[in-house]
Amino acid sequence: MKYLLIGWLIVFSLGCSTTSQQPALHDFGWSASVVPQQEQGRVLITVNAPTWLWDNRIRYRLLFASPSQVRFYGLDRWIASPPELFEQLLNSGGNTRNYALVVRLQSFEQQFDAPDRSRVILDFSVEAYSEDKKVGTREFHLQQPTKTPDAAGAISGFTDLSQQAVEKIQRWLEGLIAAES
After folding, report:
1. Whole-model pTM above 0.85?
2. In the chain, where does DSSP find H-type helix?
3. Is 133 domain-assigned?
4. Is 171 helix (H, G, I), strand (E, B) or coil?
């Protein structure tokens, strides 16, 4: 009887460890087969970021309870780090008009103002180069409320915000072209 009980405990513990839920992986909702925009073998857009943004965890802060503590969702992750996803989106999503761009990603997180109210924040700067000469720099500070105050809201919000970032960068580059003319 004692060995039967031990056997059941082993089987139960093995069953629990193999059925633990793996994190769901997310991207911005576009095909992974997108080829980066290139000019003569070099990628036109590079994204740099602080060390802490180079992992695939989805970050959030509870501003109403502990604003200095960064937290992470346990069951949802990005398929790659935010800088990698953002770089792929920028390289695939827009015409840089032969400018090489250096993007510096500064923040990419969900912030909760209250338990039932959150927003996503995306702060970055862009430097545009033409023939290795810097032709412009611009800071971008984007944010929007999430549809739901959870991981799904963060993912949806970052998908929308990242697309807005592509559009804003393109409009800024169009202004640079007009100013050069």
Report:
1. no
2. 2-18, 82-93, 151-180
3. yes
4. helix
Question: In the structure, what pLDDT confidence band is assigned to residue 13 with cuts at 50, 70 and 90?
Answer: very low
Q: What is the pLDDT of residues 32-42, one digit of tens each?
A: 444 444 444 44
Asked whether residue 148 is assigned to any structural domain, the reply reads: yes
The two three-digit tokens of residue 8, written as one number? 């059941």
- Structure confidence at residue 95 as a pLDDT band (50, 70, 90): low
| Full residue range of the structural domain in which residue 45 is found | 24-180
Contacts of 88 (CB under 8 A, 6+ apart): 34, 36, 80
| Radius of gyration of the chain measured on its C-alpha atoms | 21
Q: Degrees (nearest 5) of the Cα angle 121, 146, 114?
A: 85
DSSP letter for each residue of 52-101: GGSS-EEEEEETTTEEEEEEEEEEEEESS-HHHHHHHHHHHH---TT-EE
* Strand, coil or helix: 123: strand
